[in-house]
Amino acid sequence: MSLKHIRRLSHAGIRERRPHRHDDGQLFTIRTGVVAIEADGGRWVMPTGCIAWIPPGIVHGASVQGGMVGTSLYFDGTWSRAAMPDTVKVARLSPLLDALLGALTSNEAPTGTALDHYLAVFADAFAREPAQTLFLPMPREPRLVRMATRMLAAPDDNTGLDGWAARIGMSRRTLTRRFQAETGWTIGQWRQQMRLLAAMERLAAGHSVTAIALDLGYASVSSFIAVFRRYLGTTPRAFMPAGGAARSRSLR
């Protein structure tokens, strides 16, 4: 059977799931809250109203900040590899996808041939939905990994390129060239994305806008609000209304 298991998700407070893998494909939706996924050389942040796909065999972990409610579906590995993407994908939960998931998870869910038809339509609709840009690629070179990890741990650290080059024992030119070659982004773009994704998680956990601006190294609260609005299309305070979600834009 293609659809093997359905699990309702409900977590309060802060929760982390250590990296793991399974032979089934996993699809999950977020109805309220924010979830951060680490997998396949990157980090995604899923706000309310998103849907994520984890292919079979991919090592992944997740963390929840604040309350979260959602649904997780597990699919047979054979179907997953034949019908769904072979990489992690996060997309908006469109009305069509939402309606199909509602049918698949209802008490009168289709079975047999009807289920196959529903899943075929779902897979096609999911493939057509553009991937969200709330993603942070990670470098692979060990020294660059150390730098990125330190920046994630201390997002308020405003060390410049020369400072980071000295810290990790790499010339400024090599640092900038290799980082962009491995992530596709400049260090400035990467740091901006990192701070915005961290802000989303902190907002979901109930932190104040002022505390977040200071914790993330912004020069002022107003500058944080301006950057957040420019890239996410809404203010930080309006980002997490009950059951609401921000519109995402490319941060590159």
TrEMBL record:
Q: Does the keyword Transcription apply?
A: yes
Q: Does the keyword DNA-binding apply?
A: yes
Tell me which residues make up the HTH araC/xylS-type domain: 142-242
Task: Check the record and name the SMART domains matching this protein.
Answer: HTH_ARAC
Please give the Gene Ontology molecular function terms for this protein: DNA-binding transcription factor activity; sequence-specific DNA binding
Please give the InterPro entries that the UniProt record associates with this protein. Answer: AraC-bd, Homeodomain-like_sf, HTH_AraC, HTH_AraC-typ_CS, RmlC-like_jellyroll, RmlC_Cupin_sf, Tscrpt_reg_AraC-type_HTH
Q: Which domain of life is it from?
A: Bacteria
Residue ranges the record marks as coiled coil: none
Gene3D superfamilies for the chain: Homeodomain-like (1.10.10.60), Jelly Rolls (2.60.120.10)
What does the UniProt keyword field contain? Activator, DNA-binding, Repressor, Transcription, Transcription regulation
PANTHER family in alphabetical order:
HTH-TYPE TRANSCRIPTIONAL REGULATOR NIMR
| Stated name of the protein | AraC family transcriptional regulator
